[in-house]
Amino acid sequence: MIYRVLLYTSFVIMSIFYSSCKEFNINKEISFSNLLDTVLHQQKEILNQLDSTKLNMVIKVCEDRIELLETPGKNKLQEQWLMEEISTYMNIQALFKQMRKELHFLKLEFTYSSKQIQSLKQDLVHRHLSKEEFYSYFTQEHESLAELSKSTKNINKIYHKEITKLNALDLKLREVFTQIKSLNTKNTDELK
């Protein structure tokens, strides 16, 4: 009888120990998936700073500047002088249009990754995955998220670089129009 009690007690202790180890591993795996989720949200915040409304505003500014620079009534020298600025605005505009498309696809990829990570967590909670399957799945999601993060950082870097260029062009544009106005005033005074 004592042997049975000891056997039963050891069985209960081993079962509790096994389930607690299993729960510890699941908690560790869930914390890994939470880490992926945190990185995903940080990158998503960076993308949200570059929303399509801001990009549309910059594209509109470029369109307005191009239209302003292409107004009729300039002589050949002024047209040649402004050609570089027009070209630069066109390049910036094209880059921001491309960036807007990339931003749309990145947001779709982030949404998909978010769903995948939530699915991974649910599979862990309901114990649908073995440890090997989890780490394989986790590695795939980690690699995918690393590529998304790289793309997000790259698009953010390009955005800030082009905004700096655009702001520098605005200062240059003011100087150009001041010089054109000065030349026009000087030519008008000489004709009188």
List descriptors.
rod-shaped; single chain
Structural class comes to: mainly alpha
Oligomeric description of these chains = single chain
Q: Biggest β-sheet: count, sense, barrel?
A: none
Number of helices: 4
Low-confidence parts, pLDDT < 50 over ≥5 residues? Answer: 17-24
Tell me the strand percentage band.
under 5%
Order of helices and strands: HHHH
Q: What's the short version?
A:
This protein has 192 residues and is mainly alpha-helical. The protein is 92% helix and 0% strand.
Structure description:
The protein is mainly alpha-helical and 192 residues long. Helix content is 92%, strand content 0%. It has four helices and no strands. Helix 1 packs antiparallel against helix 3. About 4% of the residues have low confidence.
Write the topology of this structure.
Blueprint: H1 2-49, H2 52-69, H3 76-125, H4 131-191
